[in-house]
Amino acid sequence: MLKKRYRLRGSARFAEVREKGKSVAHPLAVLIALPNDLPYSRFGFSVSRRLGKAVKRNRAKRLLREAVRLQLSNFAPGYDVILIARAPLRDAKFAAVYEAVGQLARRAGLWRPIQPSQAAEPSLGPADSHPHPEEVKDEDRCSLAHQIVSDDDIPTASP
Questions:
Q1: Long-range contacts of 65-70 (CB under 8 A, 24+ apart)
Q2: 103-117 burial string, b = 16+ CB within 10 Å, else e?
Q3: What's the predicted TM-score (pTM) here?
Q4: Which of 32, 57, 91, 120 could be a cystine partner for 23, CB 3.0 to 4.6 Å?
Q5: Residues 142, 154: Cα–Cα separation, whole Å
Q6: Is 28 exposed, middle or buried (0-12, 13-18, 19+ CB in 10 A)?
Q7: Cβ distance 40 to 78 under 8 Å?
């Protein structure tokens, strides 16, 4: 999830960015950017009802948000950006959305590739934050919410 400071909020600012901003199109999405006076960029996401029902719209927004979050350090600071989902995004895989966001940013002039010295460990996403089961110590097992417990692991009380 994007931190609060990186989120574009307020219908007035959305309208201003849409009206005055520079737009770049891709088959999966449209990017509209307008400079702001902040040392960081903010992002807003728009998905029309024409894309489908709430489940499809929410998935499209999640894909766009995650693609931006993973590439946030590559975006130039000082812009308000709106990403508008197009119909083909409804059935797109994450890899395609990730690439589309990168292409849009490059074409809009918002891409600032990070230097190798600035690069952190590459992250494959949320799955990296969970330890592998073999790496977990016995005392840590009870604190892992994502671990699946089988029926054999549950002690039964004898009457």
A1: 65/1, 65/2, 66/94, 66/125, 67/94, 67/97, 67/98, 67/100, 67/101, 67/102, 68/2, 68/43, 68/101, 69/1, 69/2, 70/98, 70/123, 70/125
A2: bbbeebebeeeeeee
A3: 0.71
A4: 32
A5: 12
A6: buried
A7: yes
pLDDT in tens for each of the 159 residues of the chain?
A: 889 999 999 999 999 999 999 999 999 999 999 999 999 999 999 999 999 999 999 999 999 999 999 999 999 999 999 999 999 999 999 999 999 999 999 999 999 877 655 555 444 444 444 444 455 444 444 444 444 444 555 555 555
